[in-house]
Amino acid sequence: MTVARSVADVVAEHVRFEVECIDRMYCNVYVPRLQFGGGVISFLKQHLHLQVASTAPLGKISKAFTESVHQFAHERSIPWVDFAKGQRKDDVMHERLAGFKGSEGVVFIGRAQEKTSVFRTQKRRNANGSIYPFVVKTTAVINHFYFYCLDEDFGPFFLKFGSYFPYTAKLCINGNHWAQRQAAKSGLSFTPMDNAFAKVAEPKALQAICDRLGPEQIENLLFKWLAILPDPFTDYDRAAGYGYAVSILQAEFSLTQMLDSPLSGRVFFEHVIRQNLDTGRPDQVSLIFDRRVRAGHRRPTPSQFRTRVITDGVAPSLHVDYKHSRIKQYHKEGRALRTETTINDPGDFQVRKGLVNLPALREIGFSANRRLLGAQRLDHDPIAGSDTLDHLTKPLATAPGTRVSGLALGDPRSQALLHALAVFPLTLPDGFRNSDLRVRVEQLRGLPPGALTAGQMTYDLRRLREHGLIERMPRTNRYQITELGRRAAVFIPRVLERVLPAGLDHLLSPQLAPSDTPLGAAARAYGAAIDQFIQEAFAA
Question: How far is CA 526 from CA 296, 517, 529, 533, in A?
């Protein structure tokens, strides 16, 4: 097995298989007609036939719902847990699930006090001074009932109900658990790994299973368990149109790439964390999420635009934020590269929250994962840049077999040609002629007028044209600069003039002491370490 050397090498050569799957999803479960004041007043006066639109009578419904939850637990001997402040609910689920018997059922019911939106009645006065009740939406800390369940199709999940009107709920599922269950039912051989797959016999068949998870399966799960669990709304309520609907609160989209060894994962993150801390910049975020980002604008895009490296024990993870969404990348259990895009507000991407829009969010999330990996591969293995540099500097053979020399970047003649291309008059729409370029090159090389012949410049024009830096304008003897020529002419001379000479001067200048520059000090320390190692090796 070869050792991975770069990010691009890890992704291209050391991934055994990869799977894209919807990971954890939080869904809002709510009654659409009870999400605004007018709908609540209609429920009170027209559906319950109350004379006054007051929420006080709803206390009887809340009390009956609470009693039905306790009765449900008692009749079925379901364990009851009152969550302590700060207690991790998932840890309780893992502990209880280990001792649960059966393929499906309620594992336990938990109760916790949490803040949520509720409707209450306030007393208000009209223009005549008379007091009247007014329904307002506010927040309150109320009891929530957590139903932690095991489903034959979805595996572990929970459904959380508020105990106060309008009794909104939250559904939490894990798409990887669903995929594991479906893979087992189809007879596909695999080895599970937490919420992922460690091994799989047929990766394409597994991906096809993951692709099937959508709104239909999630709705079927919800309404199946709404029929099983206590429900604050009656058949009479549902028949009148007060039934639950579901929307997306948060969705995670994961790409899991199983690696051939833990070393490959460590190589990946050592390179990424060292060189990709600018991933959260607006220009990079714009590429990853394929969104227009306004930075420094009078109405800038609302986002923190940051890159964070968070270390949990010895395992680092990379986090990139965009508005309410984020990408997390980490080394999963030392065996897989995990890239997750979490969308906390579909509105960040002009997508509505309805569950029917899950396929659109899925495309956004998985594309963001791929774009991040693509940006990292380009940063660490710039294939396009290397190919372009070879194209510019190496000789070419034309179709008739004529050899055209390349542009040696350290050669003054090549440098003068690139500098001349960057001069503004040569970029005018009507292009330039042989004589225009010849005058500029003579000036840049410090040659007297007429020192370069038309034949010599024709040879250079041919080199520039064959290497794609300029092109001849149809039916004329004039040339214009290509996009490649414009960018190369601006970039390459500056690197050669400003970076390389200054760097070599810092490394080799006899006038500078070893500690005068960071580059010089580092080079001398490295050389001394090599010399010491050689001496010790020979001595041994």
Answer: 42, 14, 5, 11
